[in-house]
Amino acid sequence: MTSTTLPGRRMLSAEEIMRWPFRQDTLLPDLHPSTGTGNSSAKLNEDKVRAIRSAAAAGAHMATLGHAFGISERATRHIVDGTTWRHVQ
Q1: What is the DSSP string of 4-20?
Q2: How many CB atoms lie within 10 A of CB 49?
Q3: Fewest CB within 10 angstroms: 62, 68, 84, 88, which?
Q4: What share of the chain is helix, strand, coil (3-state, %, to 5)?
Q5: Burial 5-44 (b: 16+ CB within 10 A, else e)
Q6: Nearest to 70 by CA among 89, 52, 53
Q7: Angle between helices 62-69 and 46-57 (to 10 degrees)
Q8: What is the pTM of this model?
Q9: Which is more confidently placed, 6 or 38?
């Protein structure tokens, strides 16, 4: 296997790479600027996310919630499971 490096650059060893701070180590509390409503494409805000989670806890169906809020059933499930919008309690 050949590797290409930029002039003046060297290849990093696996040990050097493993010492890097990976994303899961730094997710909270330092949020990315485009997290939640900081994302210009966000269809929801924190209040709507809380409403979705409350309604799901009360027994509402994911597809119904998704339709009501203009998002997919999958996106709704990710919100309820905490995969997305993790920073909202």
Answers
A1: ---TT--PPPHHHHHTS
A2: 21
A3: 68
A4: 45, 0, 55
A5: eeeeeeeeeeeeeeeeeeeeeeeeeeeeeebbeeeeeeeb
A6: 52
A7: 160
A8: 0.62
A9: 38
Say if residue 29 is preceded by a cis peptide, omega within 30 of 0. Answer: yes
Neighbouring C-alpha atoms within 13 Å toward the C-beta of 34: 5
What is the distance, to the nearest Å, from the Cα of residue 23 to the centroid of all Cα atoms in its chain?
A: 11
Read off the tokens for 64: 């119904």
Confidence tier at 48 by pLDDT (50, 70, 90): very high
| 54: enclosing H helix or E strand | helix 46-57
- Tokens representing 9 are 């650059």
Structure tokens at 37: 């409503």
Number of H helices, E strands in the chain: 4, 0
Closest among 87, 89, 88 to 28, alpha carbons compared: 87
Mean pLDDT, range 7-24, rounded to an integer: 65
